## 1
Amino acid sequence: MIGGAVAAPGYVLGSTLGALLAARLIGAAEIAATLSEILGTRVSGDLAWTYFLVSLVLSAILEAAILVSVSSAAGAWTKRD
């Protein structure tokens, strides 16, 4: 569990920064156009950027929870009798 708790911040930070940099290269207007096409409604660039940032926070929480859970399970598996 300690390994997962130590690795989780680095992994989450790296994946979040990578996604953030990629989104900046794509641009809010392109993200908004894609969301508008998928949702079938008009989405502004500011709203698309807000959705993207919220999704980054949620994915970071989920990634950290999964990493710590899997490392805990692996540790328990190796320590079993």
## 2
Amino acid sequence: MTTPTMDKTNGWCPAGVLPAELIFFLFKIGEALLEPSVRLYITEGVCLQMLTFHNESSTKCSHLSDYPDQEDDVQATSAAFTLSSLSSSSSHSLILPLRAP
């Protein structure tokens, strides 16, 4: 004889199984927490890469606001990279609703 509290199959999910929605929700929370800090590093990395490519001093990156033309180029390049990485990491969210119930 089993009681409803002991029977794990009467719940919303069988025992030992996590639904995909819960996993996806936790993943998106982690991604949202990580994105602001990663965005700063992307901008810094793009700046260092662009200035090294043009044989300029990499110390400009810490004072990029003093060079508005280069700041615009760095921001545009880093925004394009961030947008492409976000769209590729979020493409699985289009597939998840299509799974069979």
## 3
Amino acid sequence: MNKIAMLTAIGALGLSGCASLQGGSNLAGADFSKMSCEEITGIFDAYESDKATAKSIGGIVGIFSPSSASLAESTMQSGDAILQTAKVAANVALVSKGCQSKL
């Protein structure tokens, strides 16, 4: 029974990443200079939504496997470092494009 629940949670986590990928781009490799203001902010909004979903699923996985929850947490921390670097680049692009929003 535990294996079924874990596989379900992992599958849902995999599906939750779709929104922030938006056609195969990701935060680390995004070329913000070629995106509109709305596309830039949309990628970050989708990432935050996916992150919230991943945290919820991570909590469920942690019930069945504390070591998996620990690995998921360290992976999310690595993602946060990438997010901060991407935000700097995105904010430069937003300012240079004259966008009203900032991240």
## 4
Amino acid sequence: MQTILVAAIVAAAAIAAGPADAQDYTGNVNPGTWASSMPMEASIRAQARRNGGSARMSDARASANARQHCISSLPMLRSQYGAGDGRVQQMTSLCRKRGYID
């Protein structure tokens, strides 16, 4: 009888402890620590809009970066993988389609 009572108490303690332990699985975490970047990013975007700019990269700047990437990366990729590689051919066709290379 006493063995059954001990087993029942141990089982009840194990069942009750599961959900309580699961809440603190990651330890003591302050949500303000990891969430503080969200308002900061919103503030940066709002300030950029107020100043007449955009928080995103302009299309001209993005296009210049992509052009530079195509011009500098294609020779390296061709030497590394060979001109017949599918990835190199795909990048070459995309760069040609956008007008970055002839």
